[in-house]
Amino acid sequence: MSTAPFTPWILGLTGGIGSGKSAAAERFVALGVHLVDADQAARWVVEPGRPALARIVERFGPGVLQADGQLDRTALRQLIFADPAQRQWLEQLLHPLIGQEIFSYLAKAESPYAVYVSPLLIESGQFNKVQRILVVDAPTELQVQRTLQRDNTSPEQVQAILKAQLAREERLRHAHDVVVNDRDLQTLHDEIDRLHHFYLTLRGGQP
């Protein structure tokens, strides 16, 4: 008698800047959960030798490469910042490739479920490709405080990033589960551990 092939379901993990989604992601990895980060996938598709990098150099010239052949993200950002047409071209090139990379990697999961981490999970529409959504949330003042401690930036820049991101209410509206990360790291770990045990009981992300 044959059995159906193992198919892990996908948990989408998201949250605003300074919410603690990266710390939550690290805890899932420590628990043995297969995880892919959208930012990491965006780096994979433009590694030396990949077709996307060759297309970028063909369009923008060798000035977008570092001496070691890696993409110079700062140089590229400066070229597209004030040119919406160039930015649109780059997005149309990279977004499908990033999506393919992400879901190809997730399909290799050997854990009962896999985690896809993306700050733009809702805005990008990729929430439609996951079976459940976990939002890591935190009070705005704490988001600002954490980001200032972590990054070399100003309070005004952090506030500008917060304003540019999806409104908290809209993000929470899509959530199946919410972790309010307003205490210490151990408390966050305890919450992720609790959810992990719950997720292990689910099939296709549903009770």
UniProtKB/TrEMBL annotation:
Belongs to the CoaE family. GO terms for biological process: coenzyme A biosynthetic process. Its EC number is 2.7.1.24. This is Dephospho-CoA kinase. Gene3D superfamilies: P-loop containing nucleotide triphosphate hydrolases. PROSITE patterns: DPCK. It is found in: Cytoplasm. ATP binds at G18, S19, G20, K21, S22, A23. GO terms for cellular component: cytoplasm. Keywords: ATP-binding, Coenzyme A biosynthesis, Cytoplasm, Kinase, Nucleotide-binding, Transferase. GO terms for molecular function: ATP binding; dephospho-CoA kinase activity. It catalyses: 3'-dephospho-CoA + ATP = ADP + CoA + H(+). Pathway: Cofactor biosynthesis; coenzyme A biosynthesis; CoA from (R)-pantothenate: step 5/5. Coiled coil: none annotated. CDD domains: DPCK. Its main location: cytoplasm. Catalyzes the phosphorylation of the 3'-hydroxyl group of dephosphocoenzyme A to form coenzyme A.
